[in-house]
Design a protein that fits this description.
Layout lengths: L2 H5 L2 H8 L3 E5 L2 E10 L5 E9 L7 E5 L15 E3 L3 E2 L5 E2 L1 E4 L9 H19 L26 H5 L2 H5 L5 E5 L5 H8 L6 E5 L6 H4 L8 H5 L4 H9 L6 E4 L16 E4 L4 H14 L2 E4 L2
Helix pairs in contact: 2-3
């Protein structure tokens, strides 16, 4: 599924952000997990299918049995064609429905919502817990982003334009103590290109009480290095976290030359002075938060 295509459509983003299981395939929009009642009054799930080429086409297709009302009778208000149809080599539908409001559908969101409401209403009457909005996790299987799964928060929070300013940046975090670890927690949820972690310490029991999240006893018993522990944890979300299991000294400060921004989170004044002086000399932007 092309998330970039969905991101460029306000209609499709709204459906995704509200929890619909949508998929774009071969010029068609598929909306999975639509609850309906069959002829023997059982709750089933089907898939709505609509072309993405023409919003003026008010007809919508369906993969599944014919939806019924609470009495097991077909919902006559939407009946159109009950023959199988091959849309392309990947999609075969079982029937199509027709329900055109006055003036037609203004967008795909309204079209999908109207058909979903009609089809799923009997199922929701029989079981109020039934829903088409599953908020199913959407993996970034096409490697379109730096995340393991799609960021559905940005569009909901209207911060997409802010996030674009961070794309392509290489960020370094020097020191992963009680400050650096929390900075990582925030940076890992942004679309920066790379995150580089610098720290030569191990992750010990006392660190668990000043870090985001909750380390398990197994985590602590393994005695991991800080950079390895945090890379493992935050690689669950961000794909490009790089570890540097050592302290920065005069001999290796050149590793910061290619960074776009550096967070200096060390508590030793001598080390801080060496690092910040070097960053100033190279013109690398940084924050000293040690």
């Amino acid at each position: 599924m092309s998330q970039q295509l969905i991101n460029h459509s306000q209609d499709l983003k709204r459906l995704r952000d509200e929890g619909y299981e949508i998929e774009v395939r071969g010029g068609y929009l598929l909306i999975h997990h639509i609850p309906f009642v069959n002829q023997i009054k059982q709750i089933q799930y089907g898939t709505l299918v609509t072309t993405l080429h023409n919003i003026q086409d008010h007809v919508i297709s369906f993969i599944g049995d014919n939806p019924c009302d609470v009495n097991g009778e077909f919902i006559t208000a939407i009946q159109h064609n009950n023959a199988n149809a091959v849309l392309n080599n990947e999609i075969t539908v079982n029937r199509s429905f027709s329900n055109k409001p006055a003036g037609g559908y203004p967008n795909y969101y309204e079209k999908v919502k109207r058909y979903t409401d009609i089809i799923s209403a009997p199922a929701k009457y029989l079981d109020p817990l039934v829903t088409e909005k599953t908020f199913k996790v959407i993996a970034d299987s096409a490697n379109e982003t730096v995340f393991q799964y799609i960021d559905t928060n940005s569009s909901r929070s209207n911060i997409e334009m802010i996030n674009t300013k961070l794309e392509g940046q290489k960020i370094a975090i020097i020191g992963l103590g009680g400050t650096g670890a929390y900075i990582l927690d925030m940076v890992a949820k942004t679309p920066v290109k790379e995150i580089h972690l610098f720290d030569g310490d191990s992750f010990d029991q006392h660190n668990a009480f000043r870090s985001p999240g909750a380390a398990s006893m197994n985590d602590l018993s393994e005695g991991p290095r800080k950079v390895v522990y945090y890379q493992k944890l935050y690689s669950n979300m961000h794909k490009f976290i790089h570890v540097h299991d050592y302290y920065l000294k005069k001999e290796n400060l050149q590793e910061l030359d290619q960074m776009d921004y550096v967070f200096v989170c060390v508590d030793k004044n001598t080390a801080r002075a060496i690092i910040t002086d070097y960053l100033v000399s190279k013109g690398v932007a940084f924050s000293d938060v040690g």
